[in-house]
């Protein structure tokens, strides 16, 4: 399995992360934050499936741009998988023929069907996309949000998406065989704990207590660090003295 966090900073430091999109095996995307701005026109049409963990802007920001970029290349619809609340939000507030066209009603130029189709996902029920099996798990964020377990026959990886203190995703992680890595939200430094609690994100300190629930030795990659807090969060993660905890590298292909 190959996983890459796409670039979302156009400034001098490509490691700053403002938006979230992970690519899994080049054809499946998790979240649509940077999906429409980090890839070449040739790369974009290879992505046919997109799982949206929640409707916050940093996770959907360039999904509309992506769809308009790939429209003329599509021979079958792009499928977006999300909770019912997220599908409703995307239909009502984004693809509403005001902010952006309703791609569910736009027929493909070079194929059958429409440009976009939604598939509603249910937490706890696994679903398959080609050779990949995914399980959504509700996490503790300010809007309906799921983390994801992504598995093939040999490897499992977990994405917490945006979350504060929570139990279910750690329980799933504890019981997952062949788990190689967890990509976890560590948005703010310890001194901003009250903001982190209000916005429902982890800090290095709350991550440390969450990791006690994990019960197995896997790589833990801190993601979603607010660009202005990056150095502070990196220092505080180092103070945890855990060899398995590190900051995710934007643009690196992680392969297992
Ligand atoms: Zn969020
Ligand atoms: Zn976010």
Poorly predicted runs are none
C-alpha termini separation: 5 Å
Briefly note the CATH topology name of the largest domain: Metallo-beta-lactamase, Chain A
DSSP E strands, number: 14
The H/E string reads EEEEHHEHEEEEEHEHHEHEE
Cofactors, ions, other ligands: zinc ion
| Backbone structural class | alpha/beta
Q: Which value, in Å, is the CA radius of gyration?
A: 18 Å
Question: What is the strand arrangement across the widest sheet?
Answer: 6-5-4-3-2-1-14
Shape: globular
In the CATH hierarchy, the architecture of the largest domain is 4-Layer Sandwich
The level-1 CATH class of the largest domain: Alpha Beta
Task: Supply the CATH superfamily name of the largest domain.
Answer: Ribonuclease Z/Hydroxyacylglutathione hydrolase-like
Give the averaged pLDDT, no decimals.
96
Number of domains: 2
Describe the structure in your own words.
The protein has 256 residues and is α/β, with parallel strands linked by helices. The protein has two domains: 107 residues, Metallo-beta-lactamase, Chain A (4-Layer Sandwich); 127 residues, 4-Layer Sandwich (Metallo-beta-lactamase, Chain A). It has seven helices and 14 strands. The strands form two sheets. A seven-stranded mixed sheet has the order 6-5-4-3-2-1-14. A seven-stranded mixed sheet has the order 7-8-9-10-11-12-13, covered by helices on one side. The chain is globular, with a radius of gyration of 18 Å. The site of one zinc ion has 6 residues, from helix 1.
């Amino acid at each position: 399995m190959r996983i890459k966090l796409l670039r979302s900073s156009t400034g001098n430091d490509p490691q700053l992360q403002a938006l979230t999109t992970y690519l899994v095996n080049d054809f499946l995307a998790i979240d649509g934050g940077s999906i429409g701005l980090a890839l070449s026109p040739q790369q974009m049409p290879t992505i046919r499936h997109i799982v949206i963990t929640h409707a916050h802007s940093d996770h959907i920001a360039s999904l509309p741009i992506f769809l308009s970029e790939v429209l003329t290349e599509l021979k079958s619809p792009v499928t977006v998988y999300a909770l019912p609340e997220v599908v409703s939000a995307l239909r009502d507030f984004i693809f509403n023929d005001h902010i952006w066209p309703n791609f569910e009603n736009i027929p493909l130029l070079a194929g059958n069907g429409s440009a976009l189709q939604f598939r509603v996902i249910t937490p706890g029920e696994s679903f398959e996309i080609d050779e990949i099996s995914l399980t959504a798990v509700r996490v503790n964020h300010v809007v309906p949000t799921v983390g994801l377990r992504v598995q093939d026959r040999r490897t499992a990886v977990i994405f917490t998406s945006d979350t504060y203190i929570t139990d279910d995703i750690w329980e799933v992680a504890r019981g997952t065989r062949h788990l190689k890595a967890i990509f976890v939200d560590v948005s703010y430094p310890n001194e901003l704990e009250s903001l982190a609690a209000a916005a429902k994100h982890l800090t290095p300190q709350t991550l440390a207590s969450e990791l006690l629930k994990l019960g197995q030795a896997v790589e833990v990659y801190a993601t979603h660090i607010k660009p202005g807090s990056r150095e502070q969060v990196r220092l505080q993660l180092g103070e945890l003295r855990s060899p398995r905890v590190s900051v995710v590298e934007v643009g690196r292909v992680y392969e297992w």
